[in-house]
Amino acid sequence: METINNTMGRRVMFTPAHLTRTDLQHKLGIGLSEEAIKKVQIFLHRIIIKNTYLNSKDNEGNEGFVQISKTERRTIFGKEYIALTDLLQSKNIVEVAKIDWVNKTTGEIHEVEAYGKGHSTKKYRIVGYTSFRRTDVTEDTYIVSKLNKLRSKGTEAHAIYSVLQSNTDLLQLKDSQELRESLTIYYRTRDIMLTGEEYVAFFNSVETPITVDTFGNRFHAKHTTLKRVFRQYLEFQGFEGKPLVNIDIVNSQPLLLSLITPELVQTLAEECAEAIPILEKYCGMKDFNKFRNLCLKGKIYEYIMKGFKQLYDIEINRDEAKDVFYLACYSSYPKAPENIGSKVMALITRSKDTYHVGRFTDKQMKPLALYFIRSCFPSLFNLNLEIKKLNWKNLANHNKKQYKMHANSPMLAQRIESSLLLKLCAANINQAGILFTTIHDSFLVMEKDALVVRRVIQATFEQLHLPKPRVKTETVHQVPSTMTVAA
């Protein structure tokens, strides 16, 4: 079996295969210093890393473009970041994504640079990029220092994130010909120019993206974007061959929403304290207690499935019941929620002969989900409705144009989740001496540690005077054959 060289303890950098150091010197000019060339290579490395991490598409689906913030560019290039990035563009080494902008006064169309989150984040792509070279830079203290600074820019100062970063560096894909072929098929079917060998080299590199988003304080890393069917190849370096399991709280999203109390907000998400009076108004209501009890029993999705059959005379499966919950609690609400009932009846009447949840778009499905939740759990509906009216544009570095008030509910829920599971549960798991990492609201650990982790999670809930949640252990997903990946 062919394996990739172990990179643990070593630092590697990825550069475009078609742009050697000599090529860069020739394109940029002989007079450019050695240090400047290194900065350019680090910048290209950053694009390659993010390109691979995001599966080669930005949020708008543009092939190969990734967002590089001004902070990242300053970290790499220093004060000359504008001049050097402009130089790379003028020499046709990188290009910036552009969009058509219409002058509302004259009607003229102008091509302008597209920006990501905030006016300082541009979207870059390497011209002619199809594959990368991997270079060991362990002995180059300048490059290693820059790479370390870039990593620290994406993580929070809280101690647990440093632990997660170190533990995630130990997470590796067990290389094999089967894995390479599966990955190659997966990317080929999505028209992404990336081979399985390249992805394994990227994943097993220490220098992989690790960030904490500013919206819900969630931890994102190389394995959180890894397609579920490839998790069977994961293992911790130093514990090769030890099977991994995923420890998950049963229906965690609705459960955590049902457990949010004024006290919990004050303890775990003080910045969202404006929601406390709203919580005080609804959390003690009889129907909200019913919602909480169903979540604690792990039966909320089954209740939604049964309720949809009774209310609409249709059958939905568990995954579709999850969609109902997310649409009803976390999507935007109509300006006139009192009209939801009439919209629903009109939709059912028009589509009675062909009605099936899987044939509806989210937009068509939303009124059905909202009406169902309002009918069964009016306190939950009104709680979300009022939270979505709060002005929280000052949170999560929201840009005024990008701020969407309907996102208040998921932001509050995610911040509670992150504080509870990451900063408390994860800290206690680490204190127990267990090697772990997280996939948002679940913990990836070795099978031998599963029982201890389950107990730690439940004990942490008890420390906060919360009911003990139902916790499940799942073996890492298995794939019967390489061709299954392409389906």
Task: Tell me what you see in this structure.
The chain is α+β, with helices and mostly antiparallel strands. Helix content is 46%, strand content 13%. The chain has helices spanning 21-28, 34-53, 70-77, 81-90, 141-153, 159-169, 177-188, 196-203, 252-259, 262-268, 276-282, 286-296, 300-312, 318-330, 340-351, 362-376, 378-387, 408-431, 450-463; strands at residues 12-16, 66-68, 94-96, 98-102, 109-113, 122-126, 132-136, 171-173, 211-212, 219-220, 234-236, 244-249, 436-439, 442-446, 471-475.
Short summary:
It is built from 19 helices and 15 strands. It has 487 residues and is an alpha+beta fold. The two termini are 26 Å apart.
**What structural category do the secondary elements indicate?**
alpha+beta
The radius of gyration computed from the alpha-carbon positions, rounded to a whole number of angstroms, is 25 Å
Strand order of the largest sheet: 13-14-12-15
State the helix count. 19
User: How widely separated are the two ends?
Assistant: 26 Å
Q: Can you summarize the main beta sheet?
A: 4 strands, antiparallel
**Silhouette:** globular
Estimate the strand proportion. Answer: 5-15%
Helix content: 40-55%
Low-confidence stretches: 1-8, 56-61, 351-355, 478-487
Assembly category: single chain
- Overall pLDDT score: 82
- By DSSP, the count of extended strands is 15
